[in-house]
Amino acid sequence: MRYTGPKNRIARRQGIDLGLKTAGSKSQERLLKKIAIPPGQHGLNKRRKVSERGNQIRETQKLRFMFGVTAKQLKNYFKKAVSTKGNTALYLCTLLESRLDNTVYRLGFAPTRAAARQMTTHGHITINGKVLNIPSYQVRIADSISFKSEKMQKVPAIMKMLEIKDLIIPHWLERQATIGKLLEKPNMDVLKDQIDLRLVIEYFSR
What does the angle CA 184 – CA 155 – CA 66 come to, to the nearest 5 degrees? Predict the structure, then answer.
């Protein structure tokens, strides 16, 4: 099942901001103040030495919660990646980053991946001019992503995102106003500093 509990609790347990809360929001500010303190009444006193297996599980959970996928979905992505000749970690990242909901998020059309997933499932996003409500759809090179109507663009949270001038968009994407496009296959550049992908691969390869 996809996790639907308190998002800040998950981020604090993992010790990293997973992008589950809108950047600049009060909720994210509270998270950043307590990011180094594990959830629960015992706080820092609850810290234990983590085994190699424990580290593998933790990195895998980070990746799963970050992209909002279930354990089964992530395992299926790994199976596809490992069946492709070459760098398994790279192919795993490509599959996750190419998801439609993640692409909508990376383009700055939504404040979080969860919001991007909701917009997609509700039919507010189009691919090459046609509505597509499948968050897991693998966006292809040259695919054009946009909003179904201007009405969605006027939602306060979306308007705020579209007005950000210094938004950092990955080099494999291009955005002009409210139209985004995939220029090339995504790579590990954005994730490698947040997730130890080696441990994720080791976890699934056991």
Answer: 45
